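Chapter review: from sequence to fold.
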Amino acid sequence: MKIAFLSIMIILFTACSTNSIEKDYTKLKSQNINLPQYETLIIKGKKYSNTDQLNGKLKLIVFCDSTNCNTCAIEAIYSWEEYIKYAEKLENQLCYYFIFTPRKEDIAKVRTTLAMTDFDYPIVFDSTGTFRRLNPHIPTNKVFHTFLLDGNNHVVMIGNPLYNSETETLFKTTVEKLLSKSKI
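The token string follows.
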């Protein structure tokens, strides 16, 4: 999995000009992320209306829009369990937003996949595309669909810690640094 991702990243970075990547990076970091008040979250395949569970000082956004395979991402969501345990050790000052925005024709399939999951963390099912509409500055390039927000919803780090150890180290270092600053 890691080798496949690295191969894709190499192809992506060589296929895209450095200028394009820099523009996307700057574009994402230029504005705060607007997090809508979601009425419904899904936990273990069941709907809940309590969105208070997503109130950490820091937020890691994992955004899967209609250009991604939403059911594939849901099936792979268990990979995040180690990171969720990490957040629990931080007294839940870090929360995760798993936001799935499927294509209209995939909504039923994604709902079925979510219903079969035993994942014990809230998942946002954004069938109306509210997140994308509120954040048009998020690049379409999937590399920019996982990012860490500070308490003001400003992007402080971009990258998926699941895919390589350097990003994982950067993620944990950044989280710990930001949380220690907030205690001062």
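Two observations follow directly from the output. The longest strand covers residues 58-64. The radius of gyration is 16 Å.
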